[in-house]
Amino acid sequence: MHTMWKGTISFGLVNIPVKMHAATENKDIKLRQLHKKCKTPIKYEKTCPYCEEEVKSEDIVKAYEYAKDKFVILDEKELEALQKEQTDKAVEIIDFVKLSDIDPIYFEKSYYLSPNEGGSKAYGLLRNALKDTKKIGVAKMMIRSKEQLAVIRVYANTLVVETIHYPDEVRDVKEVPNVPAKVDTVKKELDTAKMLIEQLTTKFDPEKYTDDYRTALLELIEEKKNKKQTTTVTAEGKPGPGFESNLMDALQASLNRAKKDHPKTKNTKRKSTTKKQTTS
Length: 280
Hints:
The protein is α+β, with helices and mostly antiparallel strands. It has helices at about 75-85, 120-135, 185-200, 210-225, 245-260; strands spanning about 5-10, 15-20, 45-50, 55, 60-65, 70-75, 90-95, 105-115, 135-145, 145-155, 160-165.
């Protein structure tokens, strides 16, 4: 499993050298955009609308727009210095709370923690302490150039870091439109709804839930592959002969390409006529 971060988790005077690994993966099917006419992948370029020219990576600077069309330019070295200052700090558990105290709306992404060299004993100590007290630790840490609020908990005998949103990142529910403050419910309807909930209540089993859309999309892709409904792009980025819709078009295109790549040279052989002169 790929290590994406190394550091130290501490609580009190206990320091735990750890490695962090992504606990989840995105299995969305990524679809490319092709030019409808020739089936070539679309190319996206960074351009400057003022200079009307393509901009290379080395010519791009970062800035913060504090007002409409007004920017504060931030130097790359300044940003790196701030990030390094936070990254070099040990991740300290600030508080311990109950998992039930945190509403799921705050949770963002999960990471597994494994002990780094010499950290197994301290790792086990924190894991057992969290298990016995049924608590989770709250900490702040730098992940991918952002200071994250996070909780550390036990999942299947492994320490897990869950990044959570800061309070100002969660929008105020009062901004949600058309939410009724109070609705009078008929008792019979409410009792029936409760009975339905009880009837459908079961133990959560994540294995029973599948992504039906992703499965259907993969089956459709496989079906099109088997029927040879595919297109090919050459190394130069131009579509190969597979993109023509029928055999005749493919043959004609191949013939035209062959004529272009290997033009027929006129063989102008000099006809030498040997005249036998007879001397009388």
